[in-house]
Protein 1
Amino acid sequence: MEIRMRFFTEYPNEAHIFFEAILQPQEKLRDRIKQILEPFEKINEKIYRSAISGITLRDGITEEDAIEYFRQMQCMFNGYFSSFSYRYMTLDKQIREHEINLSKLLDFMLYGLAKGGTQK
């Protein structure tokens, strides 16, 4: 995540192109953008696999289940950021918010929300 943010900070024009292509692709370019992003998606999958390699999955959850969960959450998360409420933010603010919230989401996905133990 730090590398992504550093890249986006150092190359703001490329960051804008990247986020517009992901969050608000033009309909006529959607299929082509998907093709172009295939290598990026493979990198994401490597990151997902690396993230789950250091944790013990619950019984009945396979690595492929976890990878598919990551993919679905990424799709929903990006859909959320292309929603109506975020369209009124500047792209710079959208990028910052996306990256901050993505880090939080990944933490929640891997480690949950609740602290272990019983509540009183």
Protein 2
Amino acid sequence: MSDEEVRRVADALDEVEQIADLEQRVRAKSQVMAAQAERNKEWSRERDDLIRRLNAEEGLSYRQIAARLSIKLSTVQAVFRGYKGSGTTRPKVEKEPEG
């Protein structure tokens, strides 16, 4: 995606935020969020595949991948740890039984 395409998407989102009627604005925002939620899984899979390929085929370090893709280092690290989800859904570490 070119910078121009990203700008157009951002501009469209800005227009949704400028809808004067609160009910119409919330309805539009809900529609946008629902549409994006459907895309997130595929977008994430594609990003994760590229991260792994850059590491395996080009030998890039985690930091190099993060810089090249303009993403956080922690995102790259999470891909290799196999972690998905937010901190609120992360499984808790089970403690050793005392005794």
Protein 3
Amino acid sequence: MRRRVDNDDHTQALLRFENGAMGTMQASRVQTGRAFEVSFVLTGTKGAIRFSQQQSHLLEVSLDSDGLDTHGFRTIELGPEHGHFGALWPMSGINVGLHELKIFEAWELLQAIREGRPRSRTSTRRS
């Protein structure tokens, strides 16, 4: 049986940003081996960072300033000292789920409304 599809099964895009930076983006809702994986890799001229929602308490970072001869990644285990994480968990090593991330987003939105300012996409404030 055929049905109309209102969203893409798989999408790829080449991106060019206003500042001249370029990037690629890929999204798939049917890719084999992934159960609701939201992940990204950002690679720049001075380093890279990897993140996966499946392991949301970990960041993999590689910076030129790290002096890693192999250009490998080091793993940072997120904890209370990183953004809003400490509002939910008092220690490192605990995965933050999608629902907890939505709590952080809602908190940021309510703070912006209370303060009469636009919601910042880069806000990392804690109160």
